[in-house]
Amino acid sequence: MNGEVPMATTAAILAELRAARDGFLAALDDVDPALLSVPGLVGDWSARELIAHLGYWSGHAAEALHRAELGTLHEFGSDDPAFDVDEVNETVARVARESDLATVRLREEAAYGALVERLAAADDAWLLDTTGYRDTLEQVLREDGPDHYREHTFDLRSWFAGEPEPDEDDDDD
Asked: Fewest C-beta atoms under 10 Å: which of 1, 21, 46, 56?
């Protein structure tokens, strides 16, 4: 802890996470189950791969919370300098393609449950602590949690509404 007071609270992030996941599940429930394994939702991913992806990153955030609890968050991410997000995402997608949808959903639910449990018990003071890759715990929790669920809820709703994916090269930033 660096002595600063966090702007957010773990309770607020937890509420955002719950609402964002509920929104994702509601969007998923609107999809014909026969279409959940059809590629093309995000790149060549189906909803099945997307569910697995969200589960993996929920688990990542839960692990960051565990490291904060142990006082080793500063080491989180520094223990694997060759960590490649795209490679991880592709591995998660490949495993999801080789798994049935029920198993993928159970894995996501378990990872989400672990994140909720750790977040509910977390100390607000940890939110400003930084990882080995210099993100604060709050950034990790938001990016891997509520922001991520909201991003992919948008993808899900857009794809099934027939809207094109936004072009990442057209950012106004």
From this structure: 1
